[in-house]
């Protein structure tokens, strides 16, 4: 076995162990324009949740629902339409494993990508009991506004820290795998296609009717290559690692500008050398979650992001002029995003506060020490 193959097998084994421990998994499904499923792919965690052998392979979405979803929950899943964009709401239902055990799970669509073949849907599946233990324990849910900062526990449990660490590593590993596969497979195929088109163009006369068609195909292949490089560059792990946190945030905002009629303004004064990579990745995900919540929920016209560092601390503030956050919003299933932001900040020994902005809107304030103490615990 080659070294690359051994390393790949080791990564897959590590991911399988982390997903089994965290009781979660991910899957992707490709639908054509009519909504018909073309193929599906599961991570090992899905097999573990339903007690299915890896050798059995994945089944279609419909077959999965009929085989593993509780009969009383199947109708809701079949009635759910494929969204045009990534939704905020989560789908909660019960699984019946091959061993006969009932597992209540939450399914979230994390990304929807439009391709020439159809709509590619990426989603995650989490055991509700694990999510509740990590994110929704009585001590970790604020009882009132602005309790997201005042009523938080003085320290975060090791279980929650371990779960967040597992999820972060799984996301980073999966994104690296996707980037590598896109580069190796599609990059090489597009390169070969461009060579073949060049040879074909040289074999026909300029006056031939095929000449213009070949030129069109060459331009299309070049556009596909540019698009592939853009996708690779926008993967968060690569964007933060290669371009730095400030540039990655700017790229995120630019992508949001193209999809949403919101005015974004920024003031980012960061010194990347002061930020360890793990910290930069976590801060990026906090910004990403906050902005996603705003564009989906706040109905805001303007969002302002400021981020700067001094000798001891990183200061981040995200404010909007939307409809604000109510106490009831914190107890919805979708509010897990707020709780995960808080737990990430606590894991960095930082402080986070969420407050209303007068006359309307919300302000998120975060302070993270650049040199956290070895034995310190995050607080809010």
Descriptive account of the structure:
The chain is about 50% helix and about 20% strand. It is an alpha+beta fold. Among the domains are: about 130 residues, PAS domain (Beta-Lactamase, 2-Layer Sandwich), CATH 3.30.450; about 130 residues, Heat Shock Protein 90 (2-Layer Sandwich), CATH 3.30.565.10. The strands form 2 sheets. The protein has a 5-stranded antiparallel β-sheet. A hairpin with a 5-residue loop joins strand 9 and strand 10. The longest helix has about 45 residues. About 5% of the residues have low confidence.
Which bin fits the share of residues in helices? 40-55%
**Shape by Cα distribution:** globular
Distance from N terminus to C terminus (CA atoms, Å) equals 50 Å
Tell how many strands the DSSP assignment holds: 10
Low-confidence stretches: 134-157
CATH architecture of the domain at 3-135: 2-Layer Sandwich
Kindly name the structural category.
alpha+beta
Average pLDDT, to the nearest integer? 76
CATH structural class of the domain at 3-135 = Alpha Beta
What is the assigned CATH homologous superfamily of the domain at 3-135?
A: PAS domain
The Cα radius of gyration reads 23 Å
What is the CATH third-level topology name of the domain at 3-135? Beta-Lactamase
Question: What does the largest sheet look like?
Answer: 5 strands, antiparallel
* Beta-strand proportion: 15-25%
- Number of helical stretches of at least 4 residues: 12
Looking across the biggest beta sheet, what order are the strands in?
Answer: 2-1-5-4-3
Oligomer: single chain
SSE pattern, N- to C-terminal: HEEHHHEEEHHHHHHEHEEHEE
């Amino acid at each position: 076995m080659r070294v690359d193959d051994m390393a790949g097998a080791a990564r897959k084994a590590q991911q399988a162990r982390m997903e089994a421990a965290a009781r979660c998994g991910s899957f992707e499904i490709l639908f054509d324009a009519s909504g018909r499923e073309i193929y599906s792919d599961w991570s090992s965690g899905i097999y573990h949740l339903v007690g299915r052998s890896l050798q059995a392979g994945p089944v279609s979405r419909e077959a999965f629902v009929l085989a593993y979803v509780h009969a009383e929950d199947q109708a809701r899943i079949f009635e759910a339409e494929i969204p045009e964009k990534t939704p905020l709401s989560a789908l909660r239902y019960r699984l019946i494993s091959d061993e006969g055990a009932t597992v209540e799970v939450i399914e979230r669509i994390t990304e929807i990508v439009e391709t020439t073949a159809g709509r590619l849907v990426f989603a995650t599946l989490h055991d509700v009991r694990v999510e509740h233990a990590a994110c929704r324990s009585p001590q970790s849910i604020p009882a009132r506004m602005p309790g997201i900062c005042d009523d938080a526990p003085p320290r975060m449990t090791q279980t929650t820290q371990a779960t967040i660490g597992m999820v972060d590593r799984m996301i980073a590993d999966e994104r690296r795998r996707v980037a590598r596969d896109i580069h190796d497979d599609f990059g090489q195929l597009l390169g070969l296609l461009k060579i073949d088109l060049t040879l074909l163009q040289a074999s026909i006369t300029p006056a031939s009717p095929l000449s213009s068609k070949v030129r069109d195909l060459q331009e299309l292949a070049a556009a596909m290559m540019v698009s592939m490089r853009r996708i690779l560059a926008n993967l968060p792990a690569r964007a933060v690692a290669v371009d730095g946190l400030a540039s990655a945030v700017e790229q995120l905002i630019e992508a949001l500008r193209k999809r949403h009629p919101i005015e974004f303004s920024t003031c980012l004064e960061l010194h990347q050398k002061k930020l360890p990579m793990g910290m930069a990745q976590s801060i990026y995900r906090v910004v990403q979650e906050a902005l996603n919540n705003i564009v989906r929920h706040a109905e805001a016209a303007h969002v302002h992001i400021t981020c700067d560092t001094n000798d001891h601390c990183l200061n981040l503030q995200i404010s909007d002029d939307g409809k604000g956050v109510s106490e009831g919003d914190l107890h919805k299933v979708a509010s897990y995003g707020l709780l995960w932001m808080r737990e990430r900040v606590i894991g960095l020994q930082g402080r986070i506060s969420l407050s209303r902005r007068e006359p309307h809107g919300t302000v998120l304030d975060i302070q993270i020490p650049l040199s956290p103490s070895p034995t310190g615990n995050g607080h809010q």
